[in-house]
């Protein structure tokens, strides 16, 4: 099997080191969009439960590697373990790596330079920060190319990420901020959806209806920003009648600091990514 990117995406075998939440979201997204077949994916994860969940999401036919080295023998290797385990897990994978194998890391905080120090000299390496909505084709990912990566390999990564959502190439120092915003961001939005639904219930709505209205309100508002191209403030003003309900609700959000809380959440998560990178 030729190494990426000379092979068509669909003919490239992708090894995965770690088959947990994020590996599952990416792999299932690739299969869902027809970019990969389950049999193209060879995953190593010591956890039976994680591998079973991986197979259930991605599809029958995914290959369970018996060792990290076996997964690393694919055409590209996705590093999808926790950053804290990298130093311990990578030596076993390196035994199976070929010099041309493209290593794609999604480890929060772990820099290209740290990873390169753990891999054979000259190993092509890309650092990516995806997010779990890749599972449904609505991911938001950013990536930075390592020094030895050919343009065509960068294009391969861009295609891999674009298949499951938005993707942007960035200078590596921005990736910790990306982690704080879009990597962790789905969790902030799930919290907002949950809280809106709770508010609906407090205001008297049945729980199921409140949950549906909260979900569709968030999805619809995001789609309005995407489709109209308007600044969110313009769209917010269009909802806010003078002396109306919305301005009363917004006042409460300002008093209770929602805006500042979200800003600080992103900044604090980005700082945590930097801390993880320092080991
Ligand atoms: N979850 C997210 O939203 C995002 C996560 N990331 C990054 O993705 C990476 C994975 O995160 P996530 O998927 O959430 O984590 P998970 O814990 O869900 O997945 C990691 C998996 O790796 C397994 N594992 C542990 N040791 C090894 C090993 N030596 N070899 C192979 N597999 C091993 C774990 O098993 P066990 O549980 O038994 O230890 C677990 O099943 C992290 O580096 C994270 O920073 C990036 C973007 C978003
Ligand atoms: O919480 C974490 O560390 C990972 C990285 C980005 C999202 N989840």
UniProtKB/TrEMBL annotation:
Keywords for the protein's UniProt record, in alphabetical order: Amino-acid biosynthesis, Cytoplasm, NADP, Oxidoreductase, Proline biosynthesis
Annotated Pyrroline-5-carboxylate reductase catalytic N-terminal domain residues: 13-109
Biological classification of the source: Bacteria, Pseudomonadati, Planctomycetota, Planctomycetia, Pirellulales
GO molecular function, one term: pyrroline-5-carboxylate reductase activity
Positions contributing to NADP(+) binding: 17-22, 80-83
Reactions it catalyzes: L-proline + NAD(+) = (S)-1-pyrroline-5-carboxylate + NADH + 2 H(+); L-proline + NADP(+) = (S)-1-pyrroline-5-carboxylate + NADPH + 2 H(+)
Origin: domain of life: Bacteria
Subcellular location: Cytoplasm
Enzyme Commission no: 1.5.1.2
Biochemical pathway: Amino-acid biosynthesis; L-proline biosynthesis; L-proline from L-glutamate 5-semialdehyde: step 1/1
One term under GO cellular component: cytoplasm
Protein family according to the UniProt entry: Belongs to the pyrroline-5-carboxylate reductase family.
GO BP terms in the entry: L-proline biosynthetic process
Protein name (Swiss-Prot/TrEMBL): Pyrroline-5-carboxylate reductase
Species of origin: Botrimarina hoheduenensis
InterPro entries on file: 6-PGluconate_DH-like_C_sf, NAD(P)-bd_dom_sf, P5C_Rdtase_cat_N, P5CR-like_CS, P5CR_dimer, Pyrroline-COOH_reductase
Role of this protein: Catalyzes the reduction of 1-pyrroline-5-carboxylate (PCA) to L-proline.
Primary localisation category: cytoplasm
Positions of the Pyrroline-5-carboxylate reductase dimerisation domain: 172-276
Pfam families tied to this protein: F420_oxidored (PF03807), P5CR_dimer (PF14748)
């Amino acid at each position: 099997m030729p190494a990426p990117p000379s092979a068509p995406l669909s003919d490239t075998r992708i090894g995965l080191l770690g088959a947990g939440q994020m590996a599952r979201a990416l792999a299932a997204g690739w299969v869902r969009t027809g970019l990969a077949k389950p049999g193209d994916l060879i995953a190593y994860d010591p956890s039976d439960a994680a591998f079973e969940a991986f197979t259930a999401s991605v599809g029958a036919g995914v290959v369970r590697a018996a060792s990290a080295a076996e997964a690393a023998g694919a055409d590209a290797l996705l590093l999808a373990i926790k950053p804290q385990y990298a130093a311990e897990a990578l030596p076993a994978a390196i035994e199976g790596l070929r010099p041309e194998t493209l290593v794609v890391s999604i480890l929060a905080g772990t820099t290209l330079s740290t990873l390169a120090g753990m891999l054979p000299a000259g190993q092509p390496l890309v650092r990516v920060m995806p997010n779990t909505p890749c599972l449904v084709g609505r991911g938001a990912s950013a990536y930075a190319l390592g020094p030895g990566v050919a343009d065509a390999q960068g294009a391969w990564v861009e295609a891999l990420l674009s298949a499951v959502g938005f993707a942007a190439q960035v200078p590596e120092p921005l990736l910790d901020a990306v982690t704080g915003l879009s990597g962790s961001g789905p969790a902030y939005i799930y919290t907002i959806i949950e809280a809106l639904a709770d508010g609906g219930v407090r205001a008297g709505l049945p729980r199921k209806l409140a949950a549906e209205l909260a979900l569709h309100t968030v999805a619809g508002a995001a789609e309005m920003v995407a489709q109209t191209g308007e600044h969110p403030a313009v769209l917010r003003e269009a909802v806010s009648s003078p002396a109306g309900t919305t301005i009363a609700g917004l006042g409460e959000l300002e008093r209770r600091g929602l805006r500042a809380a979200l800003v600080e959440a992103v900044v604090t998560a980005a700082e945590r990514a930097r801390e993880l990178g320092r080991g």
